[in-house]
TrEMBL record, chain A:
Primary localization: membrane
Family membership noted in the UniProt record: Belongs to the binding-protein-dependent transport system permease family.
Record-level GO BP terms: transmembrane transport
Residue numbers spanned by region Disordered: 1-23
Name of the protein in its database record: Carbohydrate ABC transporter membrane protein 2 (CUT1 family)
Membrane topology (UniProt): Multi-pass membrane protein
Swiss-Prot/TrEMBL keywords: Cell membrane, Membrane, Transmembrane, Transmembrane helix, Transport
UniProt source species: Murinocardiopsis flavida
GO cellular component: plasma membrane
One of the Pfam families matching this protein, by short name: BPD_transp_1
Residue intervals of the ABC transmembrane type-1 domain: 94-283
InterPro entries named in the record: MetI-like, MetI-like_sf
Transmembrane segments: 29-52, 98-122, 129-153, 165-183, 263-282
Localization terms from the record: Cell membrane
UniProtKB/TrEMBL annotation, chain B:
GO CC entries: plasma membrane
Alphabetical list of Pfam families matching this protein: BPD_transp_1
Domain annotation ABC transmembrane type-1: ranges: 90-304
One Gene Ontology biological process: transmembrane transport
Region called Disordered, residue ranges: 1-23
Protein name: Carbohydrate ABC transporter membrane protein 1 (CUT1 family)
Membrane topology of this protein: Multi-pass membrane protein
InterPro entries: ABC_transporter_permease, MetI-like, MetI-like_sf
Keyword Translocase: no
Keyword hit for Transport: yes
Domain of life: Bacteria
Residue stretches spanning the membrane: 32-53, 89-115, 127-148, 175-200, 221-243, 288-308
Main location: membrane
TrEMBL record, chain C:
SUPFAM superfamilies documented for this protein: Periplasmic binding protein-like II
Domain of life of the native organism: Bacteria
UniProt cross-references to Gene3D superfamilies, sorted A to Z: Periplasmic binding protein-like II
GO cellular component, one term: cell envelope
Protein name: Carbohydrate ABC transporter substrate-binding protein (CUT1 family)
One Pfam family from the record: SBP_bac_8
Subcellular location: Cell envelope
Lineage summary: Bacteria, Bacillati, Actinomycetota, Actinomycetes, Streptosporangiales
InterPro entries xref list: Bact_solute-bd_prot1, SBP
Signal peptide: 1-32
Spans annotated as Disordered: 444-473
Length: 297, 315, 473
């Protein structure tokens, strides 16, 4: 079990790098032109699916059905966005995904903070062994345990419910792992002083530790939210009622349960990636931290 | 790569030399420690450990037509995997894994190295290359399903414009897996770019600058200086992509359902099919396959750690 | 044999414990052990109208169904209408149970627990199971009791649901496959758009004319149809052949499927030829993909359910025509299997008033008025022949004259063993195995259709035997 220390990608890229201006040699200029050309060639196919989903969302079904496909829209319509809601109950599925990802994120944060606190600040016999066992749970793929989980949870009558959706994911060692790293940096004296003042463990955690560990908590939250938002396998198995499916499963329904309608498919996909798109654009720093630390998973 | 199992070996606040007066407090806090660990332990025990053990149990039993375990069959379910069909599934899984990991990691590396050149708009480019990361397996797969239609799809439309013959992306036995791989590589690219550029960002600027002053430029700088420095991130990316690929499911479920003619049936898809496909509910067989998956993930991780770790440079 | 691509696609989507063969054994044990015998008002005969008349208060009917999105909304509107008409007497509570497979799986669980709903909608290919489970009061019993005029029900449907001389269930929603053509493409190729091809041979001839190539670039394919098992079932029925033995499973439990014989092999052979020669495009097994091929004008003809008509007209930027589903060979007797889904009223465990109230609701759903609205709202055929005389259905016909083709094709069907369709406890699995063999035969290099179909038919023997064993016990 090990991980990568990327460190905080402080001032990623060249921003902080000293820039000494000197004259470029012709060879360097030629090289730079090559770099631009290569980047341009690469970025087109990388962005194309996103571009097409975005413009296709606002194209009429007839326009989408033309061949060869139009890559630049001729008209503009909200029909797909309106119809996609009727086809899969989009707002309900959106809500389901938010609830599922939200509950799991909050629960994993809470359980991880407590566990990490125990590992760092509380006395524990065979701490190393316990921690290693903790981490080893990350080696068990959910695909290898879903049958008993499915039998158990549907046996409790919890299929098609929020508890059934979130239960197996209420805790994960990953958050504990990351928070433990962060808590270990916490100045010992500060804690001792707080304790000396008669502050209880929980109060110390909520008043001092958590506020001071915000960057790590953000990283954990974003990571957990993102992975659960995108989860496919478990929701597919544990839900079948159209009102209890998640957005991701709804996308599959759009693709396979309806008559061919690329407009609805693209609209559904586009709407579903908006939150994650925003996260990637504005939360890159945290995401990278969380994901990189998730190495063990 | 730092080993993290050094886990609080010398954690403060612990030790036999504690004064006797502190003993009660120590016992109390020790109980509290377990109370704090309890929620996590409970979830792990009920939803990970027990299911894993029960999977072992199921794999050694036959099952009746509704999937209830019946008689003990020992390792029969595993023996039944010694078929050409299962060998094919294995080969598919291997192809899918290697096919997605190698170009995915190489592509991301190429992109971040290009971005290292002194170019304008580096930030915009990087964000652009990272955007596919916003796509989930489901959203990426449904968008690609629109691209792949053999008659009217966007990709064949583009080929048509260039006067090229159409391609049977998902309906040809030879190509279907590659189309799934293409979707997956695209989907994973953003993540690779994010991880590797974060790694580059963490490299001390003076190392690079020193190399530049020494006359290292362009691909020499990249290849001899940057790539070794990126060792940990590359290693991490390879491990993670491999494990992800071994668990790949959504793209197959959405795009091909394992077809045509089982050409895209991987281990995870096969497990799902055994357990949930029509008239199946073969939980025993599925459990045996699930254990194989578990072992493969375990071995892959171990091997990768063992082999690659020695070769990566630690910054 | 089944209804429309929605149903089929969703069935392909995922089947949780959808074991058609599945729990039959258990179910039968449970029913034999008398989850409800004649004792609790559960003998399998229909009660008379008096039971309801003598009852005070509201009778609640729980109704399990599988109608999603548009279809679900139209169904709920009908239920609201019925509940309003019967306020204070009967209240129907609809409960969506997921796709057809799920409903059947849940129904099976309910039988085990002795907790069935009053009324349940089950797809055509679950009919054999429903009969074997002995939970539902045979439809014939209600018909006889009330002297209900079931001759108004579409003949092909009665044919499908009549087993051992008795009507077993009330057909509710059904559709039939058609040949869709791009009339503009026909005109351009010098073909008469009013004369769609009638046989596979003609489909090929037309396709040769419709296929346009420019070097290696394809401008237009003749045909773009999905390898959907339902089509093979239809080809065989139109050729007068059974799909399974024992008189299509109607003279006893079928023991093997016959899609590796006769017409089925010819069709797959023909299909392979069409693909190999470039007159058809291989769109795989899903009709969504063939619709996309057709709607974009890339394939001049396709095969699809009547219920796809609305969606096709929405997207196609050309004149759409419809023709009969083609015959495999000239001179085949023709006709088509129509199953769809049907309604089953449960006996054991339910009061007579509840059974009666369910029947009142079923009668309402089968009325010309309700069927007309159903037909117009969903694209399913009207199971009541008088439904087409109603305003909503008439308007629909005016709007989509193409939809009359389906009706004509249906009306010309001669009810016989072949067009009745195969009854098989594991029919859904059978269809899938058939599709797999078909796909293998046309996509693998050097594959032989006969060999591949035989292989997949053989694969079915085990499942069928397992099912039959559980029935015998």
């Amino acid at each position: 079990m090990s991980t990568v220390e990327t460190g905080e990608p402080k001032a990623t890229g060249g921003a902080a790098r000293p820039r000494r201006r000197r004259r470029r040699t012709p060879a360097e200029t030629a090289g730079l032109v090559c770099v631009y050309a290569l980047l341009a060639v690469l970025i087109v196919p990388v962005l194309f699916p996103l571009y097409y989903a975005a413009v296709g969302t606002f194209m009429s079904v007839r326009e989408l059905a033309t061949f060869p496909p139009k890559l630049i829209p001729g008209g503009f319509t909200f029909d797909n966005l309106v119809n996609v809601n009727g086809a899969i109950n989009l707002d309900r599925l959106y809500l389901n995904s938010v609830i599922m990802a939200g509950v799991i994120t909050v629960s994993q944060l809470a359980t991880s903070v407590l566990a990490a606190y125990a590992f760092v600040f509380l006395p524990l016999r065979r701490r190393g062994v316990v921690f290693a066992l903790f981490l080893s749970t990350l080696m068990i793929p959910h695909e290898a345990t879903f049958i008993p989980n499915y039998l158990m949870i549907s046996g409790w009558g919890l299929d098609n419910t929020y508890p059934g959706l979130v239960m197996p994911f209420l805790a994960a060692a990953f958050g504990t792992f990351l928070l433990r790293q962060s808590f270990k940096q916490f100045p010992r004296e500060l804690r001792d002083a707080a304790m000396m003042d008669g502050m209880g463990h929980l109060r110390f955690i909520t008043r001092i530790l958590v506020p001071l560990s915000k960057p790590t908590l953000m990283a954990v939250s974003l990571y957990v939210f993102l992975t659960t938002w995108n989860m496919y396998f478990w929701p597919l198995i544990i839900t079948d009622h159209p009102d209890m499916r998640t957005l991701q499963i709804g996308l599959n329904s759009l693709k396979s349960a309806e008559f061919a309608n690329p407009g609805l498919i693209l609209a559904g996909a586009f709407v579903s990636v908006i939150p994650t798109l925003l996260l990637v654009i504005f939360g890159q720093r945290f995401i990278v931290r969380g994901l990189t630390a998730g190495a063990v998973k | 790569m730092t080993s993290s199992v050094d886990a609080g070996r010398s954690a403060p606040g612990e030790g036999p030399q504690r004064a006797a007066g502190n003993r009660r407090k120590w016992t109390g806090e020790h109980t509290l420690a377990w109370a704090f660990l309890a929620p996590s332990v409970l979830v792990f025990a009920v939803f990970l450990i027990y299911p894993l053990l029960y999977t072992v149990y199921l794999s050694m039993h036959g099952n009746d037509i509704v999937g209830n375990p019946s008689t003990f069959v020992g390792l029969d379910q595993f023996a039944e995997m010694m078929t050409p069909e299962f060998a094919k599934i294995f080969a598919n899984t291997l192809l899918f894994t290697v096919g997605t990991v190698a170009p995915g990691v190489a592509g991301a590396l190429l992109i971040v190295l290009l971005l290292e050149a002194r170019i304008r708009g580096r930030r915009v480019f990087r964000t652009g290359f990272a955007l596919p990361f916003a796509f989930s397996v489901a959203s990426a797969s449904v968008v690609f399903s629109v691209f792949y239609n053999p008659a009217s799809g966007v990709l064949n439309g583009i080929l048509y414009r260039f006067d090229l013959p159409p391609v049977e992306w998902l309906t040809s036995q030879d190509l279907a897996m590659w189309s799934i791989i293409l979707t997956t590589v695209w989907m994973n690219l953003g993540y690779g770019v994010l991880v590797l550029s974060a790694g580059l960002g963490a490299i001390q600027p003076d190392i690079i600058e020193a190399a530049r002053i020494d006359g290292a430029t362009g691909h020499r700088l990249s290849w001899h200086i940057l790539v070794p420095l990126l060792g940990p991130q590359l290693f991490f990316l390879i491990v993670l992509s491999t494990i992800n690929a071994l668990q790949g499911f959504g793209q197959i479920h959405i795009l091909t359902k394992g077809g045509p003619a089982d050409e895209t049936t991987t281990l995870v898809y096969s497990i799902y099919q055994e357990a949930f496909a029509t008239g199946s509910a073969n939980f025993g067989g599925a459990s045996a396959q699930a254990l194989v998956l578990f072992l493969i993930v375990l071995v892959c991780t171990a091997v990768q750690f063992g082999v690659i770790e020695r070769k990566v440079h630690y910054s | 044999m089944t209804t429309n691509p929605i149903d089929r696609a969703s069935r392909n989507r995922r089947r949780r414990t959808a074991l058609l063969a599945g729990a039959v054994g258990l179910t039968l044990t449970a029913s034999a052990c008398g989850g409800g015998g004649a004792g609790d008002g559960g003998d399998l005969t229909a009660p008379g109208a008096d039971v309801l008349k003598d009852h005070d208060g509201v009778v609640e009917v729980e109704f399990w169904h599988s109608m999603e999105t548009t279809n679900g909304k139209v169904l709920e509107a009908l239920i609201d209408e019925f509940n309003k008409e019967n306020e204070g007497k009967i209240k129907v509570n609809p409960s969506f149970q997921g796709i057809y497979d799920d409903t059947l799986a849940k129904y099976r669980g309910a039988v085990q627990k002795g907790d069935t709903p009053e009324l349940v909608q089950i797809y055509d290919i679950g009919t054999r199971f429903m009969i074997d489970a002995k939970q539902a009061i045979p439809a014939q019993s209600f018909v006889d009791k009330d002297k209900y005029d079931d001759s108004k029900l579409e003949e092909g449907l009665r044919n499908y649901y009549t087993v051992d001389g008795e009507l077993q269930a009330f057909p509710f929603n059904s559709s039939t496959p058609l040949l869709y053509i791009n009339k503009d493409a026909f005109k351009k190729a010098g073909l008469d758009p009013e004369k769609p091809p009638k046989t596979l041979e003609e489909v090929r001839e037309y396709s040769e004319k419709l296929t346009e190539k420019d070097g290696s670039k394809v401008e237009q394919y003749g045909l773009g149809a999905a390898m959907y098992g339902w089509f093979i079932e239809q080809f065989k029925a139109r050729a007068g052949e059974s799909y399974c033995n024992k008189g299509n499973g109607r003279e006893g439990l079928a023991t093997e499927v016959t899609y590796d014989e006769g017409t089925a092999v010819e069709v797959v052979d023909w299909w392979k030829g069409m693909l190999d020669d470039g007159y058809a495009v291989n769109v795989g097994r899903k009709t969504e993909d063939s619709q996309a091929a057709f709607n974009s004008g890339r394939a001049a003809m396709t095969l699809d359910s009547t219920s796809a008509l609305g969606a096709i007209l929405d997207q196609a930027d050309f004149e759409v025509g419809t023709g009969y589903f083609p015959l495999a060979n000239d001179g085949d007797p023709g006709g088509s299997i129509i199953g769809g889904a049907s309604l089953w009223i449960n006996g054991p465990g339910h009061e007579q008033v509840e059974q009666r109230a369910s029947w009142e609701f079923v009668k309402f759903l089968l009325s010309p008025e309700a069927q007309s609205k159903w037909h117009a709202g969903t694209g399913y055929l009207s199971v009541n022949t008088d439904g087409y005389e109603q305003p909503e259905a008439k308007e629909q016909t005016e709007k989509f004259p193409q939809s009359t083709t389906a009706l004509d094709q249906l009306r010309e069907t001669k009810p016989n063993e072949a067009t009745a369709g195969c009854l098989l406890g594991v029919m859904s699995e059978g269809r899938m195995a058939n599709e797999e063999g078909w796909e293998r035969a046309v996509t693998a290099d050097g594959a032989d259709p006969q060999e591949e179909l035989t292989k997949s038919a053989k694969k079915m023997q085990g499942s069928i035997a397992k099912y039959n064993e559980s029935i015998d016990n």
